[in-house]
Amino acid sequence: xxxxxxxxxxxxxxxxYITPVYPCPCGSPTAPPLMRGAPPTVITHRTWxxxxxxxxxxxxxRRDQWPHPELCCPCGAxxxxxxxxxATRGTAPPSTAAGPSHIPLxxxxxxxxxxxxxxxIRTARDAVNTAALYLRWLGFSDVVQPxxxxxxxxxxxxxxxxxxxxATTRPTALRDVECLWLNALNTSVSGALFxxxxxxxxxxxxxxxLAIPLFVLDLTGAPQPVNGPAxxxxxxxx
Length: 238
Description:
Layout: E1 3-7, E2 14-18, E3 22-23, E4 29-30, E5 41-42, E6 52-56, E7 63-67, E8 70-72, E9 78-80, H1 124-138, E10 156-158, E11 161-166, H2 174-186, E12 190-195, H3 201-210, E13 214-217, E14 223-225, H4 228-236
Parallel strand pairs: 11-12, 12-13
Antiparallel strand pairs: 1-2, 3-4, 5-9, 6-7, 8-9, 10-11, 13-14
Helix pairs in contact: 2-3
């Protein structure tokens, strides 16, 4: 797997980013080619077109659209990693497929749970489904989605937990954290937040004070904990 150094332009923290590898329909491992030395960009507004990148399989020449590589910095910034454009090859067969429905999450450390198998996120419903799968993987039982989203904006319920999934293109705001906390308090359960676009500084600070776990969803469907309460939930479980 290719690894490149990445410095967060917000907090200047250095990371070693490992390229995610996906299985091509032909069976060969395929990865977006990263641009070494090119600075990452901070994602402040998402568009679905920018979130996908063309990748060509070196074995069969097939070109598919894969999620653009991203890195969730502990400071809360979501970074888009630059990718080299796919070279034009006239003999390459065109493809409109967006990739397989399941992409294995690379292991970074030993973990007592089996590997989480995420779903590629293309729609807001995919984001909710991914969060539900992740909560079950963490150990929450009876995770259900309400038939309709009420004014409380609760997307998922489980034994002892309610969760909100923000699939909008703007960072989740302070108000969302406080509303979730109040709903959890009123029902005597815990709360958790999942976001596609990350969180504002105010939201992160408030979530830390209220012990609300925050997770960021990337388009590969791999939730990442971005604050202490989330790290503790992943390590200890419900």
